[in-house]
Structures are given as structure tokens and as C-alpha cells.
Amino acid sequence: MSTASAGGAAASGPPVPPADTPPPGASGPSGPSSASGAPGPSGAPGKKPRSVLGTRSWVAALFLLPALALLGALVVYPIGYSVYRSFLDASGDGFAGVDNYREVFTDERIRTALKNNVIWVIVAPSVATALGLIFAVLTERVRWGTAFKIVVFMPMAISMLAAGIIFRLVYEQNPDRGVANAVWVGVHDTFKAPAPFPGAHPRDDRLLTEAGGAFTTRTVVKAGTPAVLPLVGAKPKDLKGAKTAEPPREAAGRVTGTVWRDFTRGGGGTPGVIDPGEKALKGVTVEAVRDGRTVASATSAADGTFTLPKSADGALLSLPASNFAAPYNGVDWLGPSLVTPAIIGAYVWMWAGFAMVLIAAGLASVPRELLEAARVDGANEWQVFRRVTVPLLAPVLGVVLVTLMINVLKIFDLVYIIAPGASLDNANVLALQLYQSSFGTDVNQGVGSAIAVFLLVLVLPVMLVNLRRIRKERQR
Questions:
Q1: Is the pTM of this model over 0.85?
Q2: How far is the C-alpha of 428 from the C-alpha of 430, rounded, in Å?
Q3: Transmembrane stretches, by residue range (predicted)?
Q4: What is each CA distance from 73 to 66, 68, 78, 344, 411, in whole angstroms?
């Protein structure tokens, strides 16, 4: 009974095709899909395939055409024309061959520019990246880190032209105007006192000028006979608060004297005599010299007087050159030897903030568990920084370093603005030489085009390294 019911149910259901029979509509040797008008991959019969985004290729090309035309007009054509122009002479009418490229490697100014570019590529990106890394790591540990980052990044908002003008003033030689030399002179004068009366000199022939700038009496001095040492040329600013000079007082067995400015305002007065109102020179060192050896020394008091011991009897009095030496004027930052490091310092001031921001962004994505695990394992902060933080930040550091290297190869405006005319050839770089060769006094656009092509060749390896790095990042 149950068997019959099961058979009836099977008979009344839909027929089941054999296992080796393809389902209806399936493609086969003579199936429907082999017929013309079969639907394509997009599902619509007879239509061309679409891209992944659902856009036909010719539509995408139509939208890209204006950008491609602009790219060709502003990039491809200038590059091609520069290569073509680099093989022509200065007039552009004759073929020069490789003469322009030969001049690039033989001209002294261009070789200096190439040497400076090597210094720029090595020093500037490395220093800016290192400072950015230090700032990014240290500002994570302070509450006011965000404010510090804003201050460090702020120079990026200043144009190269404005930064050049700022640092031209910073590196001014005069300490009263240049900030760098004002600080440097302040530090120097803290450890070495400046001369009390720079530029002062004898009034008459009582004092002889020695080699090195010292002044010495013509005759020896005797104990009990006062010595007068009149000087002129002391600057009014060095005499502020000076007292009136007093005649020397006799002291038994000792040599006494007075050092003063032998000048009476408004004229008059007697040379070599202390007239009323004449100012004392305080702090002048007076030495007693016998047989080329200093046997005694003293310093003039506020009223200009000085007293030497009995050992000075029969010696010559000498006023050392240190009393009258010119004031320390700081460092010649924009001189031939320091102009390139000084300009690199201005560049680092601008771009260290850029490096800091990118590295800080990469540091924010570093897993804190790894840092804590290293500390738990006994690593100190320097070991954590060197063996964990820096390796994890290596991709970001590479991006910053490559970007800055490409940037410094094109450096122009900072050098042109900061370097004075006397040091411009010493600070020369390829981009600046390109401008001078193409539009300067000795115009030769053939050489300028050769320099441009050479710069392109220098930039290409850095760009290729950057592209390879980007591709590797995408494959991860």
C-alpha cells in the first residue's frame, strides 16, 4: 500500500531529466548561445562591453582629452622643445651638437652650481627630515604639542620670496640689524669682554704706535713722576657716564698717571694737559714693560688715574691693543664660505614643519602595542625609538625624503634673494644658473636648455624610485 502511494506520487510530479542532460538554455555545441544576437557580458545583446565603473572607454577618453591636451601643451611640448633647443647655438639658427652639454660640465660657474646642488640634495632633505622626526616624536609627550606643531608648520604659509627677504635681514652683518649676528655677538661678548674704547689713539707723539696696535711711551717712567697718557678718538657712546679726569696723584715709590680723552667740546684747551671738563677713560689696561717683558700692570679707575708698583720704575708704559680693538662684528654668514649653509638653514626653517606633519600622521598609525611590548621587554626609550619607531616609520620617512629631494633640485628663489651679489656665484645652483644662462647678461638659451635637460635627467631617477615605492605600497 505504501509502495503504490509512493509510485503514484512520483508519477504525478514533474519529469526529472537524466543526469547527463544539460539544462534548458545551457550553451552547448548547438545551443542557443551559439546563435547570433546572444547577450554579451553586460547582459544586453549586441552592445560593447563597459568598464568596471560602467563607463564606455570613448566617454572616459572624451573627458580626459582636455586634461591630456593641457598636459601636452604645458609639459610634453616644453620638454621636447628644450631637448631640441639644447642642440642649437645661442642664436637658435645653427646646430651646435653637444657643445652646450660640453659647456655644462666645463664652465666653472656651472660646475660650482652642480657641486652646490649635490650639497643641497644631501644636506637639506636629511636635516629637515631628521628635525621633523624629532619634533613629531617629542610633541607626542607634551600637552602643548599641537601649539608647537602649529608654530613649526607656520613658515610653510610664507612664500619663498618672503622667506628670502626675512633671512636676508636675519643674516645681516651689522649686529644692530641682523638677528643672527646680534645673538652671536651677545654670546661672544659674554665670554670675552669687548675693548673699552675701540678706535681711540694717541693725541700727540708722546706715545708711539707699535706693531699690532699697542701704544708705548717714548721714554721710561720714574717713581714719583706722574705720567700723562692723552688719547683722542674715543666714541661718545663709550663715554656715557664717564667722570671728569683727575690729575695723577704722587705716591712714594710708585708710578702713577692718568688716561683721559684730551678733547674739549667747542674747541680750546691745551694739548697734553687735563683741562676742566675733559673725560676720564675708565678700564684702560696699562702695562710696565722692561726688556720686552711685562713687569707690572694696572687698570685705570673711574677718574682715569692708575697706580703701578715700584717694579715699574724705569720701565716703558704700554697701552695694549686690546684696549682699542674694533668690536667683534659677528660672522659673515653671507660670505663666500658660509652662504650655502646659511641658505640651507633658511630652507630647513621652512620645510621642517612639512616633514613634521607627515611624520606625525604616520606616527599616529603606529600600533601602540608594539611600543609597549618593547618597553615591557626592557627596552629603554632610545632603543624603542631606534629599533621600533623608526623602522615602522620607514615608508613615511621615504616619502618625505624623496619629496624634499625633488624640491631642492629645483631650488631657485631662496638663493637668488638671500645671496648678495658678491657671493652669488659661490651660492649658485643649477636652477639659478638656468635662469642666468637663459635670461641673464650672457644670454645663451642653448646652454640654458642643456641645463634644463640635465636637471630633468637628475630628477627622473628620484621620481622613478618614488613610483616604485608607490607601486609596492599598493601591492601590500
A1: no
A2: 7
A3: 57-79, 118-138, 150-171, 346-367, 388-409, 447-467
A4: 11, 9, 7, 34, 24
